[in-house]
Amino acid sequence: MKKNEFLDKVKEKLAGLSEEDIKKAIDFYDEAINDRIEDGLTEDQAVSAIGTPEDIAEQILMDTPLPKLVKAKAKPNRALRVWEIILIVLGFPLWFPLLLTVAAIGLTIVITIFAVIFSLFVLVLSLAVSGIVLLAATIAAILFGEGVPALLQIGAALICIGLGILLFIPVKALTLWLLELMGRFVKWIKSLFIKGRTKEAIK
Amino acid sequence: MDTQIKRGLLDICVLAAIKTEDSYGYKIIKDIKPYLTISESTLYPILRRLEEAGSLTVRSVEHSGRLRKYYHITDSGKKKLADFASEWKEIMAIYEYVTREGGTNEEE
User: Fold this and answer.
1) B106 domain-assigned
2) For residue B46, what is the enclosing H or E element?
3) Cβ-contact B55, B74 below 8 angstroms
4) For A80-129, how does the pLDDT look when each residue is reduced to its tens digit (9 = 90+)?
5) pTM > 0.80
6) Residue B73 counted as domain residue
7) Residues of A in contact with B41 (CB under 8 A)
8) For residue B35, which phi and psi values (nearest 5 degrees)?
9) pLDDT in tens, A50-63
10) Is the pLDDT higher at A149 or at A112?
11) What is the pLDDT of residue B108?
């Protein structure tokens, strides 16, 4: 394959990304091929040493932030035909609620995860605060000479503080795990988009 | 090499390749080759990521009638290398623990 043919293929696979992103990538691979030719390879050898256009496009797309990727995917590679526009307009009552539902579900998942994290931290914090308050109450009870309530309160205080400290570590670990899980979820959605693209390209 | 480990090391190796003097894509690949195999398709996203993170800057230099991009390490990139070097001691300790011969650390 010749260099220009190769670069055109990469460009085609990246269609939808911003002009600037595409130009940057093309410049990079143009330089890479030229440098190999300068090193003594023929044009064909240099091109095949770089890899396949599919592989290159996939690496770039996997590294592109999700919102940019969705935008790129939504942008058609060619101008829409008249009947397609009519279908999109007429289908609005159908696809719009569907789109809204999908977006709402995604948002719900994110909010739920953060709500769980938040409530766990509130739990730990409230245990710590009640422990401190109970300690203060203990001191007050001792000052007023009430031995039995003081004993009860210091016991409760120690339980609260102990639980707070004990729970902090697993809560932190759980939070990190949930965040990582979310990261993987985003990566999975990304791979769905990219697979869709390359399949289209093969067609 | 394990892909997870390799991924982390690649960023460091790219920074190390431009540590002493500015370098360009093909040269970085050739310099790293004795240590890690890397292709252009792997290098490109790494360079882009490092640039966005402020670890390196890019400038175009004319070279035999065309432009060639040279990558220059920033202070934050140098700090990344220093951090890696200090973490390495911990990794070496883990290596010794993993490869130790028989028995436990506690001498009886």
Assistant:
1) no
2) helix B40-52
3) yes
4) 778 888 888 888 888 889 989 988 998 898 899 889 889 999 999 999 99
5) no
6) yes
7) 50-51, 55-56, 59
8) -105, -45
9) 888 888 888 888 87
10) A112
11) 46
Kindly state whether residue B42 falls inside one of the protein's structural domains.
yes
B26–A24 CB contact, under 8 Å: no
| A19: helix, strand or coil | helix
CB A86 within 8 A of CB A39: no
B48 and A CB contact within 8 Å = yes
- Are the beta carbons of B40 and A51 separated by less than 8 Å? yes
- B64 lies in a domain? yes
Beta partners for residue B56, in sequence order: B73
pLDDT tens for each residue of chain B, 108 residues long: 777 778 788 889 999 999 998 898 888 988 988 888 888 888 888 898 899 889 999 998 888 888 889 999 999 999 999 998 888 888 888 889 999 887 555 554
Section A27-45 average pLDDT: 87
Sheet with B23-24: list strands edge to edge: B23-24, B66-73, B56-63
Map tokens 């390495």 to a residue. B88
**CATH number, domain with residue B71:** 1.10.10.10
C-alpha of A145 from chain center: 59
Of B24, B40, B48, the CB nearest to A29: B40
What radius of gyration do chain A's Cα atoms show? Answer: 30
Q: Which two tokens stand for residue A166?
A: 């004990």
Q: How many domains does chain B have?
A: 1
Instruction: Inspect the interface and report whether the beta carbons of B45 and A24 lie closer than 8 Å.
Output: no
Asked if residues B32 and B17 have their Cβ atoms less than 8 Å apart, the reply is yes
Cα gap B14→B32, rounded to integer Å = 7
